[in-house]
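Shape is hard to put into words, and the shape of a protein is harder than most. The fold becomes a row of whole numbers, each drawn from a learned catalogue of backbone shapes. The outcome of that step, for a single protein, is printed below.
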Amino acid sequence: MTAGSGSDAVAGGPVRHIPVLARLAIDWLAVKPGGLYVDATFGSGGYTRAILQTAGARVIGIDRDHTAVAQGAPLIEQAQGQLQLVEDRFSNLDAILESIPSGANRADGIVFDLGVSSMQLDEAMRGFSFRLDGPLDMRMGSRGPSAADVVARAEERELAAIIARLGEEKHARAVARAIVRARTKRNIDSTRALAEIVAAAVPGRHAAIHPATRTFQALRIFVNDELSELALGLAAAERALEPLGRLVVVAFHSLEDRIVKTFLAERSRGPAGSRHRPEIAAPRPTFRVLTPRPLTPDQSEVAANPRARSAKLRAAERTDAPARATGVEHLLPPLPQLADMMRGRP
């Protein structure tokens, strides 16, 4: 997206609509005339516009944010039948492709641009940023519990686990303790209220980033189940890509990048054979990794868009091997379950 989940100003700084690593992403996607591509995180449509510059290329854009899909209407008209936008989670991208009336259910390329978008950060009512005071929401879609619900209902140990694992906040226990103490006195239902509570609990308030940045990041990732969505989305891409089709992922957070790296490492090699079970054939690799090391923005891009500095791009090419049936749960860190947290509590 135009703003990354791991950038220093993720919740507080000014934002601009600048697609991160756009040129590299399109280059590695290797768009070809007449090809079918999936922009799995449509946002403001930056990557989609770049893909559509290739003659005859078609794009299926996916976004769980109704506002992003609605604001893409002018681009649909300009694309003259080459673009279809779908309001859905990208973990369903293979099913979305199969539902296309034209019957084209395999893609020539899929691009993921992870994180939160500038449009979401800029709108105070969405509750993603403490830069502008607004309701503590943080939902990318319109369904499910909000960040305010989590802050109100999670137990102290659950909050500490979420903030430590998803925000990589060293003072997670102190932050969780402060939140639980504060909510006994009043509802924590605004971004500014939460930011003030966290800032008071985290030492070193004059650090380079706002003390509440990591806590806001953690709550947003948890509320939107972003890591699980990513793992499932990668598996869906494996099922949806044509042989020689390209997968490009731009990640901004170390947890995101670790999932992508591990998934591609596992899928690009077959398990070691066993002399004890020679009758079991090892599955063939489903991807060929194109970027042994992640690609990062150059100095000029970081200067133009400071949010780009934490971005990492990985690319891979689909083989003709069948998609694997193995799950992706092992790629995820242990976390409290949102449904359990909401169930049966006041």
Summary: The radius of gyration is 21 Å. The first strand starts at residue 36 and ends at 39.
